[in-house]
User: What shape does this take?
Amino acid sequence: MSIALSRQSSPPLLVPNLRRVDSTTVARTELVQPSMCGQTSLLCGRIGDWTWDAVSALCGIQVLNARNQSGAPTYLSFYYYHIRGSSEFHLRTPGFGDLLHVTSSVFSLGSESVLTLHRIARTPVGHDPDPTLTETSVDPEEFYSSRNPDCLYVETFNRWITRSDGGGNTNLLRSSPVDFRHAHLPTLPRKYSPRPTCHMARSQHTFLPDRSDEYRPFGEPLRLKYPVDVSRDLNGVGLLYFATYFAIVDWSLLQFWRALGRTDAAFLNRVVLDQKLCFLGNADLNTVIAVDVQGFTRASDPTEQCADVVLLDADTSRALAVCTLRFADAGGVP
Assistant: This one.
């Protein structure tokens, strides 16, 4: 679990460039800066900020300063992150100066959890924004069944947690803030609940259904070691930053790619059509992360390739994250 932290309290305030679409949805326009494009982790980190902004604006609480009943800080941690793209618009599509229109709808999952659906659209140069993409809420049916191929969609499932009395990053407890308002939020239809999906990731270390039959391994399984880099991977309070998990996944996939004899240029040309990541734990300083990578092809569609990337504490084998990616390649070599 990765965490947004703050050290002082303040009244909940809307971010200046947010606008309210309705009582459960906010929208914003963002100019793509160098700090939010290129590497997967950069845009994922920014989208995470947009989740926190949406919850702060709609749930009567400043997420970064939330406290529980006993007065201890409580944090809106990322538990599940699902990205859905297309060949027209995926995580590596935004470039310097692009104008993005972000719509974020928030759903209740009870007093300890919240789910946010983001729709990210672009306005071509010389065109006006499409109001059906910038001024309407994001419906679960749209996300799961009727996506616009010209948009990028992201689902985040967050849970309120706090540190235990012993401190550290490996024993985090569920704990809701006192002022968190969620009764007005719509509930997610049961068929779209992320909980069964996360349970499969936790218990089976994959998001692929019927992996033994429908999905067939390709390439040799790869185990890597990744020492946590304290100069780059931690946030300001010493926790493994949630976007770092995406960076580790990409680094591991690159090593797998090279082991297959593929080029770095082909890796950069890949198109990630779907990526799911379940955050199962954080890590203390000096942790060495073991990473297991395995590729798969789909029996019913051999052109579709997937990869499972599992992060573990190398000393204890405690699972830290499970990620499954479905990808293709813009140049014809997946």
